[in-house]
Inverse folding.
């Protein structure tokens, strides 16, 4: 029983990480049709900016309020990076899908190499508050606090994104744009501003995933984003592109499946089961769980 | 779901009559590839030193091995272009079939003890069947979803290799090739030249196959699929079948490249299964010029050459002398290549292959006198 609760909660922690990366990817793809390979780079930038701020920024540190400041700095850096990428690199290429993919591919190669050149290829220990190293006992299972932090953050982000989409004017434009972009443009609304906004949201969520994921793993390395990105892509496809709620369901399914099969089966089998799940979903329901809609 | 539009391939420039372009050179043009091939074949007999370009003499084993790897990747890029440039399919899983060739050969020789003449065809057939099976599932999706599915399948391959199921692949450390059963001509530093010729032969075969296919009626259907898939469907042809043929053929060519690569490098390492390899194939094709005859080959050769040489360039004195914020990024080959790639997407959409016509236009514009003569 303990094992099942522990696996469920650590699986949910993993799911939270996937959701933070996938929600932005899904919105960007749903609205702007950009398959963003550079999303892993936003994650890396967030993680490294947090790591840097904890050591160098005045007022920031590895504990207490200083840690919050450091994470905020990391999220700001990731958001800025995403907005710059959208404005400088993606915007000139709108409606040229392949070229956009190519540019983000080049960016992910060059950006990761730049992180590696600046801070070295090896994983570095990540400064984290003392309490995230400890465990909380829930129903007899000892759950690492870092994982719980991820779950709480993901739930808050999900609620914030849904509230934003539901109750604000720009949220309305984004929802409409995902459903039918041509119609929104025809009504005289500049969807491009919404593109930038969606990139900013995605960058912020990915940077948060980078910072909190590094807290969970205890280290930060340039390749971290790339390996997470593939599973985030799978989550996006299973969840339905453009659907935040679909991404959340898919992330939970993928995280739990991976965690349980990796524990009870051979290590690595869980990853393969996830791909099998993807194949099944694509064959039975190619549009994903939620289809193409910003809200399930 | 959006449809992936095919990359815009610039139309080939209209044939210019020989008397306009000034004679002998243009009449030799059709024979130029043959000339290059002859030079490439006799290259290992040269002891020329090219300081700065290669470290040793041209016929030193190190240089020949680098050239052989470049040639294999030239062939791989040409095979990948059959999918991307000529059929308009964006596959992110091409590394899988290459890795199937590499690991297939290695495992059959080292673990099963088969001789090379049995292991190589088995690996190629295995890679082709794998491509056919995965293509049959993945091609039920189109566009970006197709890219995702191929990426996911390739990821399974990478996981299988890295986790070392059944103790076959050697996991993270890779699997060195057992050379005791190989033909003597392919073993040892002194015989690198034979591997070089093998790589050259592979490149020639791939180029011939791709030309043959793209010139055939099937090739015209593939080009049609790239330009307008619905129209091919309306004409009564089944897009799925033709795409599957192209996908399987490209997978088989990649597996054959894997066999040659395994012999050149003398083993297999897990990094060849990574999605980064597919991404670099994409970079090679786009840098060279998708859908063109020589672009992908040139792109592949140049990319691998730069990938190897930029490491020593980065640690050379000239770069070391620069301030740290410049010298460190320059010592990362992927940073340089990624940046060049992004610039190429913006400023040279047709890649290297489109450079010659563009330069010709520029030259004509700069020499108005000559145009008036014509």
């Amino acid at each position: 029983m303990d094992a099942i609760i522990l696996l469920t909660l650590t699986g949910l922690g993993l799911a939270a990480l996937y959701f933070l990366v996938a929600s932005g990817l899904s919105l960007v793809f749903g609205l702007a049709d950009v398959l963003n390979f550079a999303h892993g780079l936003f994650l890396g930038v967030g993680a490294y900016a947090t790591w840097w701020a904890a050591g160098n920024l005045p007022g920031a540190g590895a504990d207490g309020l200083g840690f919050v400041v450091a994470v905020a700095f990391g999220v700001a850096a990731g958001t800025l990076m995403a907005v710059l990428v959208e404005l400088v690199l993606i915007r000139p290429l709108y409606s040229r899908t392949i070229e956009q993919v190519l540019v983000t591919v080049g960016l992910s190669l060059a950006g990761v190499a730049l992180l590696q050149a600046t801070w070295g290829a090896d994983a570095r220990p990540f400064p984290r508050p003392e309490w995230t190293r400890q465990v909380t006992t829930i129903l007899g299972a000892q759950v690492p606090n870092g994982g719980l932090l991820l779950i709480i953050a993901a739930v808050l982000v999900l609620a914030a994104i849904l509230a934003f989409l539901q109750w604000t004017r720009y949220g309305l434009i984004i929802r409409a744009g995902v459903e039918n972009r041509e119609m929104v443009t025809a009504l005289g609304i500049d969807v491009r501003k919404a593109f930038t906004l969606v990139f900013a949201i995605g960058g912020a969520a990915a940077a948060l995933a980078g910072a909190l994921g590094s807290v969970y793993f205890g280290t930060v390395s340039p390749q971290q984003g790339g390996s997470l990105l593939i599973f985030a892509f799978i989550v996006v496809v299973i969840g339905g592109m453009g659907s935040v709620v679909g991404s959340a369901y898919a992330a939970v399914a993928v995280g739990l499946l991976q965690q349980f099969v990796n524990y009870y089966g051979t290590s690595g089998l869980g990853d393969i089961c996830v791909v099998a799940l993807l194949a099944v979903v694509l064959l039975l329901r190619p549009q994903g769980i939620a289809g193409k809609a910003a809200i399930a | 779901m959006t449809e992936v539009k095919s990359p815009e391939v610039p139309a080939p420039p209209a044939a210019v009559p020989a008397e306009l372009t000034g004679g002998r050179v243009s009449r030799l043009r059709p024979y130029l590839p043959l000339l290059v091939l002859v030079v490439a074949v006799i290259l290992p007999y040269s002891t020329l030193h090219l300081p700065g370009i290669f470290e040793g003499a041209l016929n030193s084993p190190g240089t020949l091995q680098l050239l052989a790897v470049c040639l294999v990747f030239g062939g791989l890029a040409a095979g990948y272009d059959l999918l991307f440039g000529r059929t308009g399919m964006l596959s992110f899983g091409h590394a899988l079939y290459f890795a199937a060739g590499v690991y297939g050969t290695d495992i059959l020789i080292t673990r099963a003890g088969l001789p090379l003449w049995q292991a190589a065809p088995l690996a190629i057939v295995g890679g082709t069947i794998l491509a056919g099976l995965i293509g049959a599932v993945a091609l039920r999706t189109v566009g970006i979803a197709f890219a995702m599915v191929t990426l996911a399948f390739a990821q399974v391959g990478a996981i299988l290799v890295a986790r070392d199921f059944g103790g076959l692949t050697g996991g993270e450390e890779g699997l060195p090739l057992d050379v005791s059963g190989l033909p003597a001509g392919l073993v040892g530093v002194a015989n690198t030249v034979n591997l070089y010729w093998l790589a050259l032969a592979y490149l020639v075969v791939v180029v011939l196959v791709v030309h043959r296919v793209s010139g055939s009626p099937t090739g015209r259907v593939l080009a049609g699929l790239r330009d307008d898939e619905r129209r091919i469907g309306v004409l009564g042809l089944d897009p799925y079948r033709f795409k599957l043929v192209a996908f399987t053929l490209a997978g088989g060519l990649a597996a054959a490249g894997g066999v040659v690569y395994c012999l050149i490098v003398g083993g297999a390492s897990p990094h060849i299964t990574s999605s980064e390899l597919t991404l670099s194939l994409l970079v090679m094709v786009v840098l060279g010029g998708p859908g063109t005859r020589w672009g992908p080959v040139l792109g592949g050769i140049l990319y691998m050459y730069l990938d190897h040489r930029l490491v020593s360039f980065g640690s050379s004195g000239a770069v070391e002398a620069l301030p740290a914020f410049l010298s460190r990024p320059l010592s990362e080959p992927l940073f340089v290549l990624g940046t060049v790639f992004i610039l190429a997407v913006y400023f040279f959409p047709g890649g290297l292959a489109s450079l010659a016509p563009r330069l010709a236009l520029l030259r004509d514009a700069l020499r108005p006198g000559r145009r008036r003569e014509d």
Remarks:
- Chain A touches chain B through 47 residues (CB under 8 Å).
